[in-house]
Structures are given as structure tokens and as C-alpha cells.
Amino acid sequence: MSVRIVIAGAAETDELGKLPHMSATQLHLQAARNALADAGLGKDDIDGVATVGTPGPIQIAHALGITPAWLDGTGVGGSSFLFHVRHAVAAIRAGLCHTVLITHGESGRSRVGAPRFAPAPDSLPGQFEAPYGVLGPATTFTLTALRYMKETGLTHEQLAEVAVAQRRWSHLNPRAMMREPITVEDVLASRMVAYPFHLLECCLVTDGGGALVVTSEERARALGTPRPPVYVLGSGESAESPIISQMEDFTTSAAFRRAGEAAFAEAKISHADVDHLMIYDAFAHVPIYGLEDLGFVGRGEAGAFIAEGHTSPGGRLPMNTNGGGLSYTHTGMYGMFAIQESVRQLRGEAAAQVPGVEVSVVLGNGGMFASAATLVLADREG
Amino acid sequence: MSVPAPPPPPPDGPRPPVPKPVPKPTPDTLPFWEGAAAGELRVQRCTACARHYFYPRPACPRCGSQDVEWVATGGRATLYSYVISHRPAPGFEHEGPYAIAVVELEEGVRMMTNIVNVEATPENLVLDMPLRVVFEERGGVRLPLFEPAYEPAAEAAEG
């Protein structure tokens, strides 16, 4: 029997949104302190640190006064924090460390102490993407959608419904950046960013952070962590192409499929066991791919499934219940916030709480369908 | 590694236009850019499994063979998918909305490009339409772009 691993602490920065008075490092450190407080632990209880981006795990550990016996700087985009959880589970089970702090902080909107975005002209994207006038994810991540629409019959209205459904959730969440209810007509009337994507089908760009404390169930008990433990029942990770143009099939993500299958198999759950779902939503088509690639619906069915309200409040598969990257927050590497919402739902303390959530699945994307990781989380041991 | 020189002070008057990004070849990609300079769209082909592949890599991504060669393609493709960007990247400010596309060559490989010599509208850009390569001179390299490859009859039919 493997050692049971739990998320014993979870917290976001005090504020999310436009925070020009805070650097990326400050956002990491505030989130870290909040998560440690949530877990009822001090810095000396932590012996493992994982994070991605600026400034990296060495500086985060040093700034917090943590002496690490284990470090993970896996940086594979917005899914990285799901990878960190998965790697922390393995490291704790292997005895490499006991209690891991995973942090995220990103000045995605204000760009304070943040690196530049443009790829080097001799890099792979610098040679084979940037010359064609791409401008970040809005003109690359979105490239798959028209092919998906042609092959499955997904309509522009159904794509817009993704944004409408998530705004129904964020309307219930005081911390969400965008809360006003919207209609399909509103979405289709919003400014065109990269056809077929309108502004309201693109994620927010914000500042913020979050952090997690991961340890064994036994150690959480011994340390007396005060919050309901969230069990990590299973996880999976994979990757596909570093540049979107080389994604094998523009209508399905191989990385999503592989990461999902591995997580479900390890957790020994079926789709019927899942009460709540978080799917990384940098753009409106990503949850559509996620629902299909995780196997919740058949190919070409996700658009109708969302439009029929099944993922909305009161629906049978509540999804992106914080409002998601489209309406809650999106710092650039959103995966941390998807995990945070799953933890809140499993603890029963979410702003838009779904009744009786026992099993929650989180799917994280990195880059433009480049990497993926899935976590199966639960309010009890497997 | 040398320390880069500081940027020159901003000149008086209007700023010069920002140039479009220029790719910088590396040893592994140089044959691609040399081909483009010669008016050829070249990709790699595995002689072991007889399949073309792109982007440039030293071994076949499918069978792992290092017995690979650079070959010229016919420069003919179809439109696999695209977006029409309404938020111009630096250097693209004066073009109006433009099509960033992924095309599939007859040889079976895909690459990102722009669709040119046609107004970028959903009506003009129909998935799977035939395309042909053209080259644009930019900053000392030639960049492969694609334009519609209308059949003469089809062109007449469209009036």
C-alpha cells in the first residue's frame, strides 16, 4: 500500500487582478505564506520546494528561509503546478522529502519583475512561428479551432457558450475579475481578437499567485494541520509538440488523453465517480477538447454538452466553477488556480460551492497543447 | 559571451517602424533557409521509412533513423487551419487583419505560414483549399508564404 498523500494547505494571494505594486517574487512569497498559514505550518516544516518561472525554486526557498532537501523547477507552462504535485507525491513516497511547498506568482498583467515574452530569433518558435506575426497565445493556441469546427460541426454559438457557462459561475464568485452575466450575443459582439475568437472567448490577463502544501497523510496528522485534507488519488503527465503547428491532430490533444488516462487508472475511478471538473481554459475551445479527451463525452459532443448547461450551475458535471481563466483570473500560468478551486470544492468552502463534491478532476495545459497533467483529488482516501 | 551593446538613444521625431521578425538560421535549420533563398521549399525525408518530416531534426521522429536527407517539395499545400489576427504583432501594424495559417504540404508535413495575395476573410479562406508557396524577402532571408492556387476554371466560375 503506497503512502497516502494529501494537500494540507492551499491559498491564493490576498488579491488577484491588477497589482502593479507587487513583483512576481512578492506574489510567490505572499501566496507561500498564505498556504503555510492555511496548513498551520512554519517554514521549518518544509523540506521540499517546487515552482516555475521567475524567480525559480532556489530563490523562493532562500527568500522564505527554507532549507530544501528536494527541489523541482519543472517548467512546462501553465500545467507545471500539476506536474509539481505529481512529482511531490512521488518524492514523498520515495522518502526524498516530507513536506513540499509549491508556489506560483506571476505579474502577467503588470509585468513587474517579469521576463519578456518574445522568443529568440534562432529558437524553434523564433524561426518557424514568430516571422508570421503571431502575438502570444491568442494567435497560436487558437489555431486549432477552425479545423475542429470543420470536422465536428461545432458552431460559433457553441464556442461562445463556453464563455457564457463560465460567467454563470464567476457571477457567484466575489473574487472573480469578470462577474456580469453575458449572453452568446454579447460574446459574438465582442471585439474580434483572432478569428474565430472574440475577446470574451479569450482568457483574462492578470497578476496573482497561489501555493500548496503537500505531505503524507501521516505527517499531516502528526503536525496537526487544521484543514480537511485533500487526497491525491492519481495523476498523469505527458507532452506533445513544442510548437502548435506540429500538433499531430488539431481536433484532439494527445497529451490531454494520455495524462487523463494515467490519472484515472492510478486513481481507479470511472467518469461516473467525478463530481467536479476543472479544465484549463486559456481560450474557449480548450474545455471542449478537455471534456472529449478526458472521455467525459464523445468526439464532437462537448459543444452541445456545454450549451445544454451540463457544466453550468445545477448541471450534472460542474466545470470551472471559479469562472476559469475566462472570467476568474489568468496570470499566464493558470494551472495553480484550477487546483486551488478543486481544493476549495472538496473542502466545501468554494464561493460557488457544488453540494457533495467527493471527487474532483483537474486538467492542466501547458503552452499551446504542448504539455498536460491531470490530477484526481478527493475528500477521502481512495 | 560578449556583453550586448546598450541600445542607441531614441532619435528625435517619429520612431522608425519596427521591422517584422526575421528568423535566424541555426546549423540544424540552415538547409531549410538555404533552400528558401534558392526558391525551393525543402524539408527532411527519412530514407529508412520514406516519410517526410518538418521541423528540422537530425533523426526521423517516427522510426529514429539518422539516415535522413533534405529534399525539395513541390511547394503545393492545402489549408489545414488558421486564425485571422486582428491584433498585429510588431511589424504587422499596417496590414489590416492577416491570416496566420497551418498548411499541409502534398508531402504530408505541416508548417505555419501566412496566406497572402488574398484578403484575409473567412469567405476567402476555406479549409482544405489548394495553396502554393511564394517567397518573401525579409532581412536577408527568404520566408515561405502561401497564396491561393486557383484552378483557372474555378477562377472563371467564381467570376
TrEMBL record, chain A:
Q: Which SUPFAM superfamilies match?
A: Thiolase-like (SSF53901)
Kindly state which keywords UniProt assigns to this record, in alphabetical order: Transferase
Residues forming the Thiolase C-terminal domain are 236-378
**Record's protein name:** Acetyl-CoA acetyltransferase
This entry's Gene Ontology molecular function terms read: acyltransferase activity, transferring groups other than amino-acyl groups
User: Which Pfam families does this chain map to?
Assistant: Thiolase_C_1
Q: Which InterPro entries match?
A: Thiolase, Thiolase-like, Thiolase_C_2
Q: Which domain of life is it from?
A: Bacteria
From TrEMBL, chain B:
Per UniProt, residues of the ChsH2 rubredoxin-like zinc ribbon domain are 33-69
Supply the InterPro entries for this chain: ChsH2_C (IPR002878), ChsH2_Znr (IPR022002), NA-bd_OB-fold (IPR012340), Thioester_dehydratase-like (IPR052513)
Q: Which Pfam families match?
A: OB_ChsH2_C, zf-ChsH2
Question: In which domain of life is the source organism classified?
Answer: Bacteria
**Region called Disordered, residue ranges:** 1-30
Indicate, by first and last residue, each region the UniProt record lists as having compositional bias (Pro residues).
1-28
- Residue stretches making up the ChsH2 C-terminal OB-fold domain: 70-136
Q: What is this protein called?
A: DNA-binding protein
Q: Which organism is it from?
A: Thermocatellispora tengchongensis
